[in-house]
Amino acid sequence: MTTRRSVLAGVPGLLALSSGCAGLGGSDALTFEASTARTEASVASEANYELDGVEDLTIEREFAGQTATAINRVATYEKSLSIPLVGSARLGVFAAIATPAIEIAGETFNPVGDYDNDQLVQLLQSNYEGISNAQEVSSQTVAVLGTDTSVTKFRATADFNGQDVDVNIHVTKVRSGADFVACFGVYPRRLDEQENVLSMMTAMQHPVESSS
Length: 212
Hints:
- InterPro entries: DUF6517.
- It holds the Pfam family DUF6517.
- This is Lipoprotein.
- By secondary structure, the chain is of the alpha+beta class.
- The chain has one domain.
- 17% of the residues lie in helices and 55% in strands.
- It has helices at residues 4-9, 11-14, 41-46, 117-127, 194-202, and strands at 29-33, 36-39, 50-63, 66-83, 87-100, 103-104, 107-108, 131-144, 147-160, 163-176, 179-188, 204-208.
- The strands form three sheets. Strands 1, 3, 4, 5, 8, 9, 10 and 11 form an eight-stranded mixed β-sheet that branches. A two-stranded antiparallel ribbon has the order 2-12.
- Strand 3 (50-63) and strand 4 form a beta hairpin.
- It starts with a helix and ends with a strand.
- The mean pLDDT is 85.
């Protein structure tokens, strides 16, 4: 199902740089580094989610002889849950992905800025073969990092050690300073983790120190 590694499997495609920034920087090398986004420790603890770590994902692209580097940060939380046929395992996952907006001369070139929640979940699905058949269920407005944003709930199927598990996926994205912050919450459909996922989204903090 959706362990930390499987969630991160979808990130490289989601964070791909746009080819539109070719030749705009005036330098042979451009580096854009995101600040870490995390939920408040007390909120995660109350929901019984444990921080599994903050991982840097670096992506480089060459455009007309110019190297552009994006340093993205992914904070992943996991929760042990128990369901029939699978048993007890870390089946609840919450991920906060911070990716630099890549703003040059007043223009933003990170394609994530134009993606809606449906496109974000499709990217996650297409880059991780264990998740399939994502279908939108509902949407609601939630305040994340001081911005009212749409959180979309999807139903999907995930593979966990060869066992199909029906899951819910909650997705949202906001602009925060120089970065975009996307949040994903995934858990078995037969368990009600929606309130916990939404509370972690509303308790997001950005920027925070990676080591804190």
